[in-house]
Amino acid sequence: MDTAVATLAARHHVEANQLDIVGGVPRITLRFTVEEEEYDAEAGLARSAAALMRAEVERVARTRDLVVLRRVRGRWSPV
After folding, report:
1. Could you tell me which residues come within 8 angstroms of residue 59 by beta carbon, excluding any fewer than 6 positions away?
2. Number of neighbours of residue 35 by Cβ within 10 angstroms
């Protein structure tokens, strides 16, 4: 968790983080913001940040699926 938060916080504002155990598997959830830009550019920044975070986490732990979501009108949608 510390690695994930530190990696994102180096470039973006991390609003919240959470560690859950789902079906016996740890799941890290991070909510962060990217700089305000055009919609597609923001999505690209979020995907890039998440990929970098995953690469850093993989240095200390195995990972599985990476899902990047964006809040749009009160709903979370895939980026």
Report:
1. 3
2. 10
The H or E element that residue 8 is part of is helix 2-9
Q: 13-65 pLDDT, tens per residue?
A: 999 999 999 999 999 999 999 999 999 999 999 999 999 999 999 999 999 99
Q: What sign for the dihedral angle of Cα 52, 5, 24, 47?
A: negative
CA 11 from centre of chain: 12
Joined together, the tokens standing for residue 57 give 């986490």
Q: Give the Cα separation of 7 and 41 in Å (integer).
A: 20
